[in-house]
C-alpha cells in the first residue's frame, strides 16, 4: 500500500473537487434571484466536503480523523 503524503492524493478528495466544479458550473445557469438562497447553499455544501476531508487529514488522532470524514 502506498504512503499518502497529502489529502490531495486521496481519490475521495479529488472526486469531491470534481463535484464542487460541477455544482459551480450548474449554479451559473440558475436565475439571479436564487443567488443568495439556493445557489449559496449548494455551493457551501459542495465546498464543505473536500474541506472536511482536508481538515480531517491534518488531525493527529484517528478519532478526529474519522470524525471529519463522517462530517464530509
Largest sheet: none
Radius of gyration: 15 Å
Shape by Cα distribution: elongated
What pattern of helices and strands is seen along the backbone?
Answer: HHH
CATH topology: de novo design (two linked rop proteins)
The H-level CATH homologous superfamily, spelled out, is: 23S rRNA-intervening sequence
Rounded mean pLDDT is: 91
Q: Any low-confidence stretches, pLDDT <50, length ≥5?
A: none
> What is the CATH C-level name?
Mainly Alpha
Report the CATH architecture: Up-down Bundle
Report the β-strand fraction as a percent range.
under 5%
- Class from helix and strand fractions: mainly alpha
Write down the oligomeric state: single chain
Annotation field: number of helices: 3
Helix content: 55-70%
Number of domains: 1
Counting DSSP E segments of at least 2 residues, the number of strands comes to 0
Q: Span between N and C termini?
A: 24 Å
Structure report:
The protein is an all-alpha fold and 72 residues long. It has one domain (8-71): Up-down Bundle (de novo design (two linked rop proteins)). The chain contains three helices and no strands. Helix 1 packs antiparallel against helix 2 (38-57) and helix 2 (38-57) packs antiparallel against helix 3 (62-71). It starts with 10 loop residues before the first helix and ends with a helix.
Amino acid at each position: 500500500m502506498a504512503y499518502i503524503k497529502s489529502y490531495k492524493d486521496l481519490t475521495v478528495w479529488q472526486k469531491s473537487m470534481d463535484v464542487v466544479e460541477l455544482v459551480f458550473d450548474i449554479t451559473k445557469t440558475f436565475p439571479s434571484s436564487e443567488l443568495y438562497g439556493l445557489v449559496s447553499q449548494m455551493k457551501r455544501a459542495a465546498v464543505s466536503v473536500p474541506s472536511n476531508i482536508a481538515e480531517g487529514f491534518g488531525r493527529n488522532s484517528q478519532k478526529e480523523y474519522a470524525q471529519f470524514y463522517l462530517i464530509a
